[in-house]
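new request in #modeling-help
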Amino acid sequence: MSEPMFYVGLDVGGTTMKAAVVDDQGKPFPSVSLPTDAHLGQEHGLKTMAESIRLAIQTAGLGMDRIAAIGVATPGLMDIKLGLILEPPNLKPWRNVPVAQYVRQAFNKPVAFQNDANAAAFGEFWVGAGRDVSSMVLFTLGTGIGGGIIIGDRVIEGEHSHGGEIGHMRIDLPDRGRLCGCGRRGCLEAYASATAVVARTREAMAAYRGPTRMRELLRDEDGSELSAREVFESAAKGDHLAQEIVDDTAYYLALGATAMIATVDPQLIAYGGGMSEAGDVFLAKIREYVGRFGLSYPASKVQIHYAQLGSDAGFIGAAGCARQLVMSGS
Amino acid sequence: MSEPMFYVGLDVGGTTMKAAVVDDQGKPFPSVSLPTDAHLGQEHGLKTMAESIRLAIQTAGLGMDRIAAIGVATPGLMDIKLGLILEPPNLKPWRNVPVAQYVRQAFNKPVAFQNDANAAAFGEFWVGAGRDVSSMVLFTLGTGIGGGIIIGDRVIEGEHSHGGEIGHMRIDLPDRGRLCGCGRRGCLEAYASATAVVARTREAMAAYRGPTRMRELLRDEDGSELSAREVFESAAKGDHLAQEIVDDTAYYLALGATAMIATVDPQLIAYGGGMSEAGDVFLAKIREYVGRFGLSYPASKVQIHYAQLGSDAGFIGAAGCARQLVMSGS
């Protein structure tokens, strides 16, 4: 086998799944997307996964013999070791779906199975923001906060596939903190996800008597929800209330970062998702709070940056996990 | 080399250092203790380390040729990779002490260097509470809260040697939480270390008008500090105020545990130090709060136990790190 080998990465999301062939240096061929259509049932879901993988290989113009392994990333709840999707809330009504086994049999290739946020972290570690570090934590800010922890080339999967569920680290006491989507209180996600930023903004606007352009934004587009991006844009344009919200968001994210520093002490903490367009000012604020509230020595050393791969991180990371599977000889 | 080989573990503390030879199964020979006498300077300290190691080998009745490697555990601040003690607050006036290099040259053996709390966690993982698991977190409750995280046979050292500083995970916001010895607010250590338990008890007594035997304890031994052990004993004897303090302590420790579950999701969380004598009732309380406040699935699966090696965990773990160094062929 002197010819270079390739890997397929598939990232299954609640709405669409995205797949691409990735080369040994982490460079992807053009990706393909298919609707997940979870409501059509898990048999349909598994077939769509196989179809996405086939299309990705076709798109890359490669023969099946050039594919060394396949990586599949899916949302939790899952059992990573067994290769099962258990009962993910955003893939209803799927339950106990044998993803790894199905894909393995469909293609007769080694299959790596990973949580989608872990895969994104591994993608960033392999060829993105973390390509020059030996350990990193990725926070992905969206509807919720996903995350992944990579140490010495390995994803911290957790004994029960809950490693890196860092949106559910608590930053406030459970009897006092904000209510999280998980039903508990005080989780980081309830403060700093895009959804939480909007919720905090609406609360603040209700109590705020001063002028804020965000009121116009709400009035302009009747019925449509204010977006976290609009809050960040308003802050950049000098809106005081928005600036407070953004500052608080940096503070909350920094508390999550200091918790990671005191537990796994990574070389890099990276932020992905929509908010990563908030620019250097926002990162600088996070760094400032990390310096104030983190353990002095590691807080002064840790690198804090934005993620670099955008929504490609998942399938690139899945392909990277497949590559690691082959490299480690398992 | 058909004869079985042995490892020396040395655990350097603020007051004494303790060393013993440990066999390949983690069973220690009798240990030796020498005063650390940090105030006599670091040259003296390094010589005492070498002397402890020599005495331990002598005590085991073994020739130097039977020792495969030496492990040394010391308190932080340190640089684990470089084998340096930097400026540990309880080893004043030591500074930038080249421990690993010194011991390596003194004995001409491979030397593993590790943080003392990490070493204790590795000891428990190797032959103590964690001997049957593949990942664990140890909380050691004393003057402060030390800790260590072991995942898949490896100590999570951290990029800046601050991995497992889990006493400084925050459980409350930094503008509101209790003041910690580290100068920041809200750290777990400020709530649940033995010192913090006593501090919280004194505060509660000042505000409490009901009867409590802890007042007698304070009166009995004039000038002497109430101990965390006495608080736990009082609770076991039915003292209401003490029971509240103990219950709160379990709650705080559970918050630390749920943070570990959401980050590294270990198979086992173990508690060492004096409070581990508080018995099964205390552990049951911690488990109950973990079930209430942790991510449901992993919280229902994680094992929660006391540590088993007592104050031997440090040197046994240091020897275990030495063994791992040899096994991994580095």
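bot summary: Chain B is about 40% helix and 20% strand.
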